[in-house]
Amino acid sequence: MDSPSLHVALQQRGPIPLDVHFTCAAGRTVALIGPSGAGKTTILRSIAGLYWPATAHIICNGSVWLDTRDGTARAPHDRRTGLVFQSYALFPHLSARDNVAIALAHLPRAARATAADTYLARVGLSGAGSRRPSSLSGGEQQRVALARALAREPDVLLLDEPFSAIDRPTRRRLHADLAALKSELRAPIILVTHDIEEALALADDVVVIERGSVVHAGTVQGIKSGFVSDRLRALLDLPEPAS
Amino acid sequence: MDWTAFALSLKLAAWTTVLLVPFGMWLARYLAFRRHRTSGVIEALIALPLMLPPTVLGYYLLVSLGGNSPVGKLWTALFGHGLVFTFHGLLVASLLVNLPFAVQPIQRALESLPPDVREAAWVSGLTPLQTFWRVELPLAWPGVLSAFVLTFAHTMGEFGVVLMIGGSIPGETRTAALAIYDRVQTFDQSSAGVMSAALVLVSIVAIAIAYGATGRIGHRRG
């Protein structure tokens, strides 16, 4: 059994209520699922260091990233997270290659362009290195954002509804690509989604969030087996079990 | 044509721009990204020179920088001469008067950046300083350029404050705008006309640079 690589405990009354506690082992994917406004993105932003809850304890690979009790707080650039934003947040003034290369500061300068092309090829974007984000389709932009997140060689990969703005056929292809990538990546992956089908297709574990609190935490298998409470079934819009 | 006055205007505009825009950049970044209870007050104070008549502003500067003021006394103690009616006094006044032209374009440009682009830079491993150089500045460059051009052009044409704080001492505080006024007073229409045309030319070139570069960068960003 893998030892837990990411431990997250967040609590605050407001302005965004949070009462969350979960762990994610290296190589596993946890889907944070819940309705819009449940606080899923805030949890992801807290892990990345972009939001600081009133009370928080975040440990990654044994290293404390945030502990509000003793004031330990690592800055976002010091956390080694790969974050794919919902809007992709690509740098519009840089080529796809430079968008990826900017996350490769841990490599010698001369090696960055080649490494960036390798990461682009890894997400199926060979030959697109010189193109600007504005000339890329939504799916291609999503891939550049994923390549940039991977280029950071992250201790944890964070995906904030990365497929929400993509058409269904492209989404299916990207799901397959991400599933393949999971087997290569030895880091915990946290996927925020409000799509239960997506969570069941990509994740190993599911944490259901409602109004900032965990209302269910378990495996994908557990949900697929159909033994879930009526409340959870209604919250996730799961089909009624066959009688 | 009073070349001495014209050269003095260029010197004043250059010094004001070089000293003020970097400070304006820092202040604009603070106001754009760190909202604080005092932000509104600071923004109002920065905008004040746009609202006040230049002579009123010049009067208060004359009082607060004059020989009997604490600033004036300190300046005299340090440098052995007063601040008003000198080029340095003119420069101090110019720095204060042009604050809105140096701050506001950069602040608006920074505020228009999507917040998640800065956050993406941090998460990608860039420190806040690296984020400024590699992401914020290249994206907000049209605003920075506008600040340079507006500060320079406005200083070249400043009249009221310059007259109040500097008088019109040839070679020391008589700028091109003051020289034009003096020539008109002495019915020297032809010199006034040539110098006015020169200032118009400077303004047109400045605006062309600002719009041209902004358009090119905007196209590149798109």
Topology:
The complex is a heterodimer of chains A (243) and B (222).
Chain A lengths: L3 E9 L5 E8 L3 E5 L6 H9 L6 E6 L2 E5 L4 E2 L7 E4 L11 H6 L7 H14 L15 H14 L4 E5 L7 H17 L4 E5 L2 H7 L2 E6 L2 E7 H5 L5 H7 L7
Chain B lengths: L2 H31 L5 H13 L2 H12 L4 H10 L7 H11 L1 H13 L3 H9 L4 H30 L2 H7 L9 H10 L3 H33 L1
List keywords for this structure.
heterodimer, A: about 240 residues, alpha/beta, six-stranded mixed sheet, five-stranded antiparallel sheet, 8 helices, 11 strands, B: about 220 residues, mainly alpha, MetI-like fold, about 0% strand
Describe the structure.
The complex is a heterodimer of chains A (243) and B (222). Chain A is α/β, with parallel strands linked by helices and 243 residues long. Helices cover 33% and strands 26% of the residues of chain A. Chain A is built from eight helices and eleven strands. The radius of gyration of chain A is 18 Å and the shape is globular. The two termini of chain A are 36 Å apart. The model of chain A has no long low-confidence stretch (mean pLDDT 87). By secondary structure, chain B is mainly alpha-helical. Chain B has one domain (3-221): MetI-like (MetI-like fold), CATH 1.10.3720. Helix content of chain B is 81%, strand content 0%. Chain B has eleven helices and no strands. The interface between A and B is medium-sized, with 25 and 20 residues.
Percent strand of chain A equals 25-35%
Strand order of the largest sheet of chain A: 7-8-9-3-10-11
Classification by helices and strands of chain B: mainly alpha
Number of domains of chain B: 1
Count of alpha/pi helices of chain B: 11
Number of strand segments of chain B: 0
Kindly report how far apart the N and C termini of chain B lie: 45 Å
Oligomer: heterodimer
Describe what is shown at a glance.
With 243 residues, chain A is of the alpha/beta class. Chain A contains 8 helices and 11 strands. The model of chain B has no long low-confidence stretch (mean pLDDT 88).
